[in-house]
Amino acid sequence: MSIRALNWLGLATAVLLAACNLDAPSATLVGDFRIGIPDGWGGAVPSGYRIGLTSDKHSGTEAAFISGNTTGSPNFGVITQTLRSDSYRGKRIRFSAWVKQQDVDADVAGLWLRVDGPGQTLAFDNMTGRPLTGTSDWHQVSIVLDVADNALGFSFGALLHGKGALTLDDMQLEIVAGNVALTNVDPPHPSSDSVAVANAYVRSLSTPVNLDFEGIAGSSLTTVEWLTQNTVTLSGSDPTLRSDDLEPIASMVGSAHVVGMGEGTHGTRDFFLLKHRLLEFLVQQMGFTRFAIEATSPEADDVNRYVLGGDGDPKKLLSHLYFWTWNTQEVLDLIAWMRQWNSTASASQRVQFSGIDMQFPGASMDSVAAFIARVDPASSSVVDDRFSCILPFRNHFQLFAQQAIVYAARDAAAKAACAANLQSVYDLIASKRASYEAAEPTSFETVLHHARLVQQFELWISLANNLGLASLSRDKSMAENVTWIKDHSPTGTRIAVWAHNQHVNAIPTLMGGYLRAKYAADYVALGFLFGRGRFNAVSAAGEISTFDAQLVPDNSLESLFLSAGKSLALFDTRQIPSGGSTAAPLAGPILMRGIGSTFFPSSEASFFAKQVFPNDFDLLIFVRQTTESTRLPFSF
């Protein structure tokens, strides 16, 4: 193998096959040492060489060493890491280390860095012509190369071809300014191993590890390997794909009757398509017959009439849900599929569309008032009077922030009186169950539920001055509404619930937490996360915009999934306990991204929160690269 070229395929093979040669001499090492390639690094250790860790360090507690006792051999000792170039493309990078030499007699000795692209080596430097020789105390050396826009990734490390010992510590890999001088300007040259290179980099890390040789917290490299081995590769997000790859979902969901399907943002096309695809599987293969979405209940009932019988214009009905997040081509296509399925399915297999939210109570108030006018006209004025306290705030649409705060600012007595009025409407309907059911037997339960939705809305906006409490109130109400749907469906009905990760999450006080407390294993929480990509959200200026998420903290779940190398993966987090210490870092607390309907790029780090697995989510679907949802104009 050519030291100068450091052939990538040959090096990769050597790294995979090499084992430490315990019979090799220690050369002229100073200090206590132990043999073994450092955590997070690969290495080639042929006969006559040793690689390990030593107490003779630049800082911290340990440094790495490569020692050899031979010259003229084609073999060499090397340590290496490979990184995908995701965060480095189009940048100039500097790889540096503090190095100490002892009696080095070698034609190549020092650092090396190679940038690979499709079918070619784009840049390369292994300090040929300027080897580190002789004996020297700690000093810093570096390599500076460009990472081209088409780079697949790069490999880096240290090598020794000859006698003596190199001790290495406190390495750095950093992006530098374009005026920092390159250390090698050789032009790109062809590489015959492009397929192997591409396949290897797909499965490589996105950030370096253990550059100071102090170890990897949580054994991240072995954790990534475990995660890779224990995830199911999905073939794509297109709902028209065959469902073979989704079959593991059947055993993961098991006999659960309620599945929460989350999303890491409210504006990601890939999440919507995957949930569409997943819903088709749940309906066709597992007998799910209810779909419940984070949207207003009475307007969702109008959509339900369309998916069951074709009544109305689906575009207008979708707009009437009032949520810009769902007013997309992806959700419209989902509704179209439901209608198509129901047009040929038997009555017992038809899927229904429901809403679980309470943010727009106008239709609920109207439904209650109209019902009372039909079955109990004498009580109409009472209902109108008691609803009047909430009337100015119904269907606030885009004015929620202003109007809700106005209501929340009312004195406690006024809000208590309004809440009491709404309770009295609910009690009136409940107390006359017998006569009302006799008059309209199929409407009573729905109307009573509408009265409850108005109460939920009032409680929610009464807390608008404390968004945390308001959000928790909404989660509790949505859990109550999922339970209502389940209780008012035929025995054994299975329900797929569509909402944000922050709602389906099984943390106590969130919607999923209430469902977990009530249904235990009969509720399965499925979260969606992504590595990088585009999505829609409301900006600080209040406009719906498209953003690009690029930040991936090293200590995040997204970072581990990116390192696992799969484009689309399904993971059952309930496997984590059986993974022992190797899988322990996945258990958390570990950061995971969560972007709702708003996003502020200046504080992107704040959109990560710590999660615990499998407590919070039973299942996860990871999308490596995402695109924004396809928004539709509102049609009223």
Write the layout of secondary structure elements.
Elements: H1 8-17, E1 33-35, E2 42-44, E3 49-54, E4 63-69, E5 77-84, E6 91-117, E7 120-125, E8 134-147, E9 153-176, E10 189-190, H2 194-202, H3 220-229, E11 231-233, H4 247-253, E12 258-261, H5 269-286, E13 290-296, H6 297-309, H7 314-319, H8 329-344, E14 352-357, H9 362-375, H10 380-387, H11 400-408, H12 412-431, H13 433-439, H14 444-462, H15 467-487, E15 495-498, H16 501-504, H17 511-519, E16 523-538, E17 544-549, H18 557-564, E18 568-572, H19 580-587, E19 590-593, E20 608-611, E21 619-626
Parallel strand pairs: 12-15, 12-16, 13-14, 13-15, 16-21
Antiparallel strand pairs: 1-3, 2-5, 3-4, 4-9, 5-9, 6-7, 6-8, 6-9, 7-10, 11-18, 16-17, 18-21, 19-20
